[in-house]
Design brief:
Blueprint: E1 4-8, E2 12-17, E3 31-36, E4 39-43, H1 48-62, E5 66-71, H2 77-80, H3 83-89, E6 93-97, E7 117-120, E8 125-129, E9 132-138, E10 148-152, E11 157-161, H4 177-180, H5 185-191, H6 195-205, E12 212-215, E13 221-222, H7 224-235
Parallel strand pairs: 4-5, 5-6, 6-7, 11-12
Antiparallel strand pairs: 1-2, 2-3, 3-4, 8-9, 9-10, 10-11, 12-13
Length: 253
Amino acid sequence: MANIVLFNDGTHRNILLEDMDGGGFAVQSNQHVIVHGDSGMILDPGGHKIYGKVLAETFAVLGRAKLRHIFLSHQDPDIVAAINGWLMTTDADAHVSSLWVRFVPHFGLDRLVADRLKAIPDEGTIFDLGGAKLYALPAHFLHSEGNFQLYDPTSKILYSGDLGASLGQDYREVTDFDAHLRYMEGFHRRYMCSRVVMRAWANMVRGLDIEIIAPQHGALFRGKEMVKKFIDWCADLECGVDLITPTFRVPSA
């Protein structure tokens, strides 16, 4: 197990915590930590199975910095299930869509920390991480009704959540986009809502300076050319309600 440094200019660091899930039955997931000066943020820290390992590794990465924010892109258990442990063992605030603030407590949120679960409004927000700005971008229905991505203009990394997720490949970075499609196409056609929403997202992020797109599952996209290929692919993908049969039927015996 080794952490992957995606960016480090001496003040600002972006670290991927690698292989926290250790394989097995659960879906693979990526945990990311951003540190700026004396302040840190963890993104989508995960469930109970990996909580201890991710917590220990996060503290090691932080060093003398303090965890200030926990960013929850949406409500799925592979993102948020261990949130009570994070809030009980740190002083950080957790941030999730306003749609999910009253659902997350069903994962076992203690009353002592409930006031540190903060709502992100539908239009998004800007975090101040020790003087560095981080942008929570609306990405609703990609795939969750209340879904956000995080853009870090210092490192030029877009943390895209489930958008861009791939399953089954054995590499950390995409080098051949066309060959990579087989690991993500099926997932996106089923889990993403529609081409209308995909195009709205593409139109938003094309105006950003992005060097890396880092999904919550699977391999990341590095470099302007690869980033553009991914955005263009999303903008033209039929998915979700574009594909579903409009008539539901009771299953036959």
